[in-house]
Amino acid sequence: MTLKNQLLCLLFGTLVGVIALQIIYFNRISSVIYDKNNDYTSEIMANVESGMIDELDALDRIVASVAYNDTVQRFLLESNSLNKYVLYTEMTALLEKMKGIKRGIVDFVLVGENGNSFNLGYDAKVQEHYREVIEQLRSHPMHGTGVQYAGVLQLAYNGTEGMYLLVASPIRGIGQGSHYGDIIGTFFMLLDAGTLSRTIEDISEKTTGYFYILDESRVILASNDTTRIGLTAEEPGGAFIVTEKTIPGIGFTMVSVLPKNELYGGIEVVRSDIVMLLAILMLVLLIVYLLIARNLVRPLGKLFHFLQAVKRNGETAFNERVELEGYMEIHVLAAKFNQMLDEIGELTGELLDSHSREYELQLLRQQAEIAFLNSQINPHFLYNTLETIQGIAAVRGVREIMTMTSALSGIFRYSIQEQEEVALREELEIVRKYLEIQQIRFEDRFEVAFDIDDSLMGVKVKKMLLQPLIENAVFHGLELMLGKGLLTVRVCEGAEGDLRIAIADNGTGIASDRLEELRESLLWRDAPVEARKQGRNGIGVANVGRRIRGAYGEPYGLTIESEQGAGTTVILRLPGRGGANVFGSAGG
Amino acid sequence: MSKNWTNVGIIASVFALTAGLLAGCGKESDQESSSGSPAASSAATASAGGTGASKPYDVTVALWDVATNLTDPATDKLLKTVEEKTNLSFEAQAVTWNDYKEKFNLWAASGQLPDMFVTDFRLTPTVDTWIKQGLLHALPDDLSAYPNLQKIMEMPDVKPLAIDGKFYFIPRLTKLSSDEYATERGYVVRKDWMEKLGIETPKTFEEYEAMFAAFAKNDPDGNGKADTIGLTHNFSDVFGTLLALGSSVPNIKGWMQEDGKWIPSIASTGMTDYLTKFKKLYDDGALDPDFALLKTNDGMDKFSQGNVGALAVQISDNFLYTIKQKWDKANPNQSFEDSITILPGWTAPDGNQYRFYQSTAYSDIYFSSKLSDDEFDALLKFIDFNLSEEGQDLYSYGFEGEDYTKENGTIVPSENRVNYPSYKFFIYLDGVGHSRNVPREVRASLYGENLVNLSYDMYDRLIAEAKPIPINFNVDLINSTEKNSFQSVINGYMDDITKIVLGSEDVETAWAKQLKVYEGKGMSKAIEEVNAIVAEKGIQ
User: Fold this and answer.
1) Which of 56-85 (B) contact A at CB < 8 A?
2) In what order do the strands lie in the sheet with B363-367?
3) Contacts of B498 in chain A (CB under 8 A)
4) Considering the domain A1-265, what is its CATH architecture?
5) I need a labelling partner for A28 at 20 to 30 A (CA). Which of A240, A411, A482, B465 fits?
6) pLDDT digit string (tens) for B345-378?
7) pLDDT of B298-330, one tens digit each?
């Protein structure tokens, strides 16, 4: 799995995990809220009910104390005008005081069965209301001495119309006399419409749901939904939890209507919080991911591609450098990587440089050699001149001149031959000719000895291998010697079948430090400039040695042994008669 | 480099988001808690400024039916304007005609007297007690800051009311002159019934009584049922004093001379005449059998139902209008103006047609001693404003440009004149609304020309032809201990009289008994005292 994928999986996993957690807790909170709201509502219902019962209880007591007050009882039964007036005055004073007993009492009305009345007024409509209530009361059985009827009505009172709570009760005669136990009148109490519903109306708006107190005909007496007071209750449409409870005695019903979704009231806050948190979390995760992607995943990817490109494109890619942005580690990595590529580049460069320099040197050397050779005199001119000298020498009978020029001519002919490789026989022939010349020059100051294995005469060797060495031996070994020198040329077969040629002189030898130089220069390290420093001797030996080494490689080559004052021996080691190196015995 | 900036940008936006979320949560709760205060502070500053006090004062006011008339300044422009102008905020302390006596006594005893209240306890021991107990705030000696008020306090029927040179109340001027009481007593009679029964306009007591009886017994509404009432009344005291006009004790609640001595009218022999007439009305069925059980204003309701022949009531145009409003509601198909007429009552035994007459104020405005000097000053300025022309215009007509326009110096009420509920409070407080200063045209626009004409015609007639009841203010307004003490007995006259009327005893015997009771309540002492003072002051 790649870094990027794993990272994404990780982030995604975290997100999923958190969402799951949130959902679980949201549900937990929801159910807690639901339960709490439910409980709270039940509490409120209970409170309202008990509050209302208290109110009703108070009203009951007032009814009882007024309706069964002695003055009131006598007034309702009195027919004598004077007595009635006196009782009336007393009763008026009493009832005025009673008004102050409880908050909300507006007035009292008494309607006597015999026509005596108090506060009934003379408005026909108002009287109608009261008569209706009296009718209603007649049709209901009476229980107890308390309020028997309660309703909220639109009534005209004191000149203005308003909603009032009207409670009523039939009054039974309790005075001794003929009316004992009979209903002698009806007692009405007019109260503020809100009296019974004070507890409901005080319910704070934060509470969910609606509470209603309905009278017997399902008219709403009180509610915390004040717009519905006075209207008939209807079934609520929609998803509601409706609870009804009848209040004993008075025939009222308490109803609570809870919109189901409001039971979750309060959850909106949690929900929005959760959503907000999730959004923030997602944002944060996204940012984290982006940061890591930008600073780690992308640069690593880039590096990855770069390496692949290098692998594919090989040498050309090596000139590219990678550019990575991201974490500090990435920066360091990129820098070091580039540094590495730089070094590789440098090293490769150096390698190429040295190689190309090598080849360049070789080229220059060869050019030098060629130039050197080309600086030789035109051979044809030399032949002709030498033949002319030979002719003249023959005529005049100078044998030395004839020998020398013949030899020289032969040498020159040989040297301009294009063949690179010749049979050993031929190379030796030239050696002989050279030595002839030298012996004449040196007036027999040295002798030459050959020790050659004839079977090796046909072995192929590079041209101009031996002559420079012979020359060296003569001019650096024998020339400076006092006394008679000896030059030996020996050709034999080595133990491994290789060809060994040794050129030895007993001349002055080579100083040890010079010897070292020579040996060094045999090892391909010298530049032509340096070679020149060593003088002619160096060129010759080094040249031969290097040519052998260069042509045949290891272990072939040239070795020099010398002792100052004793002599020098140069030993050539060449490939032997293995196959192609061998010419036929026919010379040529 | 740009990538770094992008990162910074992203991180910054995350922080901004988080900060916003947290700030949002905080702000919500802040808003909830702070929403209360701006409303409160604006309420406090709203009532600053004006010609009155430098700070708004909350004053409690008690006056008959104040609770109905003193409404919410938010909905009542008149109230709001006056409150702002005077820097007062009025709060009603409810009293009605039925409970005021008890309530004021209760409040006085418990230290709950309203800051400003109106009641008719003048010349009663109650007020003396209140003054002695220091419950009342005396008016300042120098009233120059309140020019209109000053004028009132110097009226002839006000000056005698000073106690030790100080005034402890401001008279509530029901009228600007005593003559104006002429139409404060009378009978609203069913003209249509008179026609139906062929009754001529009565003049004598017998004629009146016959008419009332006929109303009750002769089925004037023609429905075949004996469901009609002859005469009823709207207020017991009004009825009592109205009956007195046609009796030998026209000034029944006051003092009269008899045999060279000043006595309370109820002690006079003339009471026999009064009581006889009263009882006859009742016994003959001419008077509403339930007359004693009527509450104030029940009479108007009863009359409006259409089964009452005559109503003893004030017959000024505003009262007629009130009855009309009730009548129209109950009898939308019958025109009130066409159905009624007004009558002044019968001639007295001495042959005079008397008209009602009394001190321009029967009640006064009192102030609680608990008021600070600043508050008292504000209230006095308010009263002064009410008595000023500007105030009277405001209460009578409303706002210029809205409720009326002035054309060539005359007031022209506009069609959509607003009837501010508080109007009743203000005019009732000072009584100036009863005044006839309001031009006839305005009254006609308010009450209808018919009723205004009816009332004005009666007034003119009475002024021209009737005599004011004989009152000597110098005697009636004597402020002395025994007299005041006995005045409260006099004030209960209707109760005593009613009992006699309802009873079966003959009036002379019954009243003799009653006089004995009065004796026991200090009548002689009061008579002695008054006559002494009369002699002393040389009152004629």
Assistant:
1) 68
2) B88-92, B57-62, B116-119, B363-367, B170-172
3) 85
4) 2-Layer Sandwich (3.30)
5) A240
6) 999 999 999 999 888 888 889 999 999 988 999 9
7) 999 999 999 999 999 999 998 999 999 999 988
